[in-house]
Amino acid sequence: MVKALRSLVSEVWADTDTLDTVAVPAPRATPPGAHIAVHQVSHQFAQAQGGHLPVLDHVSLQVQPGEFVALLGPSGCGKSTLLRLVAGLEAPTTGQITQDGQPITRPDPSRIVVFQDPTLFPWRTVRDNVALGLQARKVPQAQYTRVDAALELVGLSEFAASYPHQLSGGMAQRAALARALVNEPQLLILDEPLGKLDSLTRLSMQGELLKLWQKAGFSVLLVTHDVEEALFLANRVVVFSPRPARTLTELPVDLPYPRHRSDPRFVQLRQQALRELGLSDVGA
C-alpha cells in the first residue's frame, strides 16, 4: 500500500488546475471501497426534561463501493447524526446499518471520520498527529512508513516536523486527511471538512479531495451545506428534509469529470437541489 500511495503522489500534485475544474482520471475497475447500506434507520435523543427528540425518520440509502455520496439538508436536520451512526459511534434507535453485509455495531478503522475541526494535538508534530491512528491500533513500527506516504500524498512532507499552530487552515485539514488516509480506510466519512476554510482555499481543497478519492478508490459519505460543493464532488446527492430527517430525493450527478460549474447541466442540478431544499436560486 505504501508503494501504491507513493506512486500516486506525483500524479495527484503534478498539475496546477483551475479552481473551477479538476482533471480526474477514471476510477479503478475494482474499487476497494466499502458498500454501506442504511435500512429504515430512525434515531432519537433523550431530553433532560423528559421525552425524546426525533432526529432521523426511516432513512434508507446506500453507498456503493468506491462511490462518492453527498448529504444535503437544513442545519440541525440530522445529517451529522447519521454520519455518527454509520461510523459506529452510536447505535440507531431502530433500523440497521451494514458494511459489506455485516451490521455496524462499533467503530472500526475501515471507517474513518474527518470533522470540520481538524482537532490536531498542539503539542505533537504533524507527523506524530498523523501517526495517532497507528499508535492506537498498536501497528508495528515497520509499517510507520505509511505516515510518510500519507503526508506526501496530501503535500505536507515538508511540514512533517511542524506543529499545528504553524499551519494554515487548509494545511491543517490536509493533515487531518492524512491522518485518515494512513489507516487505509474503505469508507471516508466527511462531516463538513471544508466548512471553516476561506472560499479560495475551499475551492482548492475540493479539487485535491476529488483527486485523492479517485486515486485511492475508497467510498465517501460527505455532509455539506454547500450545494455546488456537493454537485462538484459527488456521484449522487441525497437531499434531506428538516428534522427529523427524511429523504426528499436523490439526485444522480450525471456529469463526467472534470466538472464545470458553468455547465448548463450543473446549473440545472443546482437549481433542482435548491428547489428541493425550499430555497430560491436568486443570489445563491
UniProtKB/TrEMBL annotation:
Family label: Belongs to the ABC transporter superfamily.
Sample GO molecular function, one term: ATP hydrolysis activity
This protein's UniProt keywords: ATP-binding, Cell membrane, Hydrolase, Membrane, Nucleotide-binding, Translocase, Transport
UniProt source species: Comamonas aquatica
Name of the featured protein: Aliphatic sulfonates import ATP-binding protein SsuB
Top-rank taxon, per record: Bacteria
Ranges where the AAA+ ATPase domain occurs: 65-245
EC number: 3.6.3.-
Keyword Iron-sulfur: no
Enzyme class: hydrolase
Alphabetized Gene3D superfamilies for the sequence: P-loop containing nucleotide triphosphate hydrolases
SUPFAM superfamilies, sorted: P-loop containing nucleoside triphosphate hydrolases
InterPro entries according to UniProt: AAA+_ATPase (IPR003593), ABC_transporter-like_ATP-bd (IPR003439), ABC_transporter-like_CS (IPR017871), ABC_transporter_ATP-bind (IPR050166), P-loop_NTPase (IPR027417)
Record flagged with keyword Translocase: yes
